[in-house]
Amino acid sequence: MASRFNSLTSLLSLISCLFLFLSYFHGTKAQSTPPIVKGLSWSFYDSSCPKLESIVRKQLQKVFKDDIGQAAGLLRLHFHDCFVQGCDGSVLLDGSASGPSEKQAIPNLTLRLEAFKIIDDLRRRVHKDCGRVVSCSDITALAARDAVYLTGGPDYDVPLGRRDGLSFATQNATLANLVPPSASANTILTSLATKNFDATDVVALSGAHTIGISHCTSFTDRLYPNQDPTMDKTFANNLKNVCPTKDSNSTTVTDIRSPNKFDNKYYVDLMNRQGLFTSDQDLYTNSRTRGIITSFAVNETLFFERFVIAMIKMGQLNVLTGTTGEIRANCSVRNSDNSFLSSVVEEELTVLSQL
Ligand code: HEM
User: Fold this and answer.
1) pLDDT tens-digit profile of 20-69?
2) Could you report the per-residue pLDDT of 114-133, keeping only the tens digit for each?
3) What is the pLDDT of residue 20?
4) Who contacts 78 (Cβ-Cβ below 8 Å, separation ≥6)?
5) For residue 214, what are the β-bridge partners?
6) In sequence order, what are the residues at sequence separation of 6 or more whose Cβ sits closer than 8 angstroms to the Cβ of residue 153?
7) Is residue 347 within a helix (H) or strand (E), and if so which, with residue range?
8) Ligand 1 in reach of 307 Cβ (< 6 A)
9) pLDDT score for 13
10) Residue 308 Cβ contacting ligand 1 at under 6 Å
11) pLDDT, mean of residues 131-154
12) How far apart are CA 350 and CA 50, in angstroms?
């Protein structure tokens, strides 16, 4: 009898331990994951396109095996999509009779052409498997997540259900929403605060510069005519070799310590005055952000946690959901301008009118 009582109490304590364990993890996830906006969901394509995430990841593994640099291009593409008019795939659209596209605005001229091709190739693979149910903006968000993970960064869930926009932003709106690399930390903090990002989000998001490259023209204002005194002298001299004049055409890496690895070395660069852009380096000069940089430089896990929070926030900026927007059949053309789609619709209408 006593032994039966003992095994019952041990079973009960085991169950309560399990409960505590589960609620602890549930609690921490809820705490560290920003709220998701109405219309997006963690399981949006679970029944309509169950293989979506594995198709994207497997294909990107192949792409990055050939050229790891493409990861940075995809991460930046998602940022430029979300900051201008929200994550609606508008940056992917080609220009039209109504005027030049977002793509043609100055900050977007240095987006990699290959990144646009990779997104539409992923779209084609996904639509082949599931039909036209997944948006280009969701594919861009997943590609950015995989770019981070496959270069050594954190893995995280992406809320899905975005729809593609029917129009692109004007050149002025694009310029107004993407701060230039010459911006001070105060300018960036003020600009990003309008999108609800705090100082920690700003520093974490800038950590994306741990991978990728930049053209000389994005930072030579710090070398010519006068050298920026906040830049390390040897670093400046090396940059002058890569970019002998203000308008040199070359490129260089944004994180000299580990340019192809998503890690916290970008913050170590900043602490050594080896940040490439004023917008990076000034985050270490500014008293509001300096401490955050040091904390990320000494604690990569903390950086990864904060980066994921900021990326999930960024990925939900002004999203279109429900019945707004559309699911594009080609990421660079809205459906009403897609001649192949229009002819299919016309054929269907003719058949219907004959019934
Ligand atoms: C907030 C202020 C930011 C400024 C001023 C800025 C500016 C720039 C500039 C000027 C370049 C180089 C472009 C070139 O000349 O080729 C660049 C590259 C890049 N940026 Fe940012 N950026 C910012 C934030 C972000 C954010 C939030 C992300 C992503 C979450 C990001 C991801 C990247 C990546 C991955 C690259 C390398 C792209 C490649 O290799 O093709 N940036 N950024």
Assistant:
1) 344 333 333 334 688 999 999 999 999 999 999 999 999 999 999 999 99
2) 999 999 999 999 999 999 99
3) 38
4) 87, 140, 141, 143, 144, 314, 315
5) 252
6) 262, 263, 304, 307
7) helix 339-354
8) no
9) 46
10) no
11) 98
12) 34
Task: Determine which residue's CA is closest to atom 41 belonging to ligand 1.
Answer: 73
Say if residues 278 and 214 touch (Cβ distance below 8 Å).
no
Binding site per annotation, positions for heme b? 209
Write down the mean pLDDT value for the chain.
90
- pLDDT tens digits along 188-201: 999 999 999 999 99
If 0-12 CB within 10 Å is exposed, 13-18 middle and 19+ buried, where does residue 14 land? Answer: exposed
Tell me, in angstroms, the distance from the centre of ligand 1 to residue 218's CA.
Answer: 10
Q: Which of 51, 74, 65 is nearest to 147 (CA)?
A: 74
The answer, yes or no, to whether residue 186 has pLDDT greater than 80, is yes
Q: Which helix (H) or strand (E) holds 236?
A: helix 233-242
Q: How many Å lie between the centroid of ligand 1 and the Cα of residue 87?
A: 17
Q: What are phi and psi of 137, to 5 degrees?
A: -70, -35
Q: Please provide the DSSP assignment of 295-335 as one string.
A: HHHH-HHHHHHHHHHHHHHHTTTT-B-TTSSB--SBTTB-G
Detail the residues annotated as belonging to a binding site.
81, 84, 86, 88, 90, 102, 209-210, 255, 263
Residues catalogued as catalytic: 80
Residue 14, pLDDT above cutoff 60:
no
